[in-house]
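One record is kept unedited as follows:
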Amino acid sequence: EVIHGVGGNCAIENWQNRTELQYCDLLGMPDLCTGCPGVQDTLADYLTLVHSGNKRIGFRIDAAKHIHAPELTGIVKQAGHPFVFQEVIHGVGGNCAIENWQNRTELQYCDLLGMPDLCTGCPGVQDTLA
């Protein structure tokens, strides 16, 4: 399995519900099964490949609260523990609050720095973060 619930997965209806956030489709986009060994292997291999070219490189995990924390930890561990920080949108409370994630940035972090292109995947970002 690569995608949760192919052909009939749930949609996020309750943004306070961590299970929905991490296992249901976000805005109609299929939810990648980050707990499945094949998916974890592929993601870890990619991080390892990119990281092997420059040990000073780090990774920004977009929409991190949509990945179950132990699954993300497993992927990062398998990749050799490269530096990662997690983008989490502020404003959702309870067990989905931004404070529940480590090494995090808020969605508007780059705007607050006055560097909006830093978080958009533009060419040159890798050199800026290195």
